[in-house]
Amino acid sequence: xxxxxxxxxxxxxxxxxxxxxxxxxxxxxxxxxxxxxxxxxxxxxxxxxxxxxxxxxxxxxxxxxxxxxxxxxxxxxxxxxxxxxxxxxxxxxxxxxxxxxxxxxxxxxxxxxxxxxxxxxxxxxxxxxxxxxxxxxxxxxxxxxxxxxxxxxxxxxxxxxxxxxxxxxxxxxx
Length: 174
Known about the structure:
Blueprint: H1 3-9, H2 13-19, H3 24-33, H4 38-45, E1 51-57, H5 62-77, E2 81-87, H6 92-96, E3 109-113, E4 119-123, H7 128-135, H8 143-157, H9 160-173
Parallel strand pairs: 1-2
Antiparallel strand pairs: 1-3, 3-4
């Protein structure tokens, strides 16, 4: 199946939310509260062309629940952006082509396609600053303490860094 056909058949973020089983209330709450900074909407609105964002996710993923609702709100604000979501575990070929550090199936991953469905880049699985903490200083903590720090970071950042990093990739591609 072509990437175009696969993309078109993938659920929208809202359709994906209907399938979420684990952390259902958290997914919905973060999506309802998600707000996109006007400067990031304005900057993305200036990008020429049409952009197709394809996220690989699973409903149990804490990083996905903290990032994809904000990406979805951003795409909703931009008529030339579209977001679809596929399950990581059902799409190993796409996942294996976007491994973190060349070895890890970390999610979420957001693959960016241009209007011709040519891949122009990808982002994930978490903002660079947070990834550096998790792989560095965060290793000093047990997983529960490390995840508390991650949740606080996401709550304070409110998706700004995710969108800024994605905008950088889109600007380079444009």
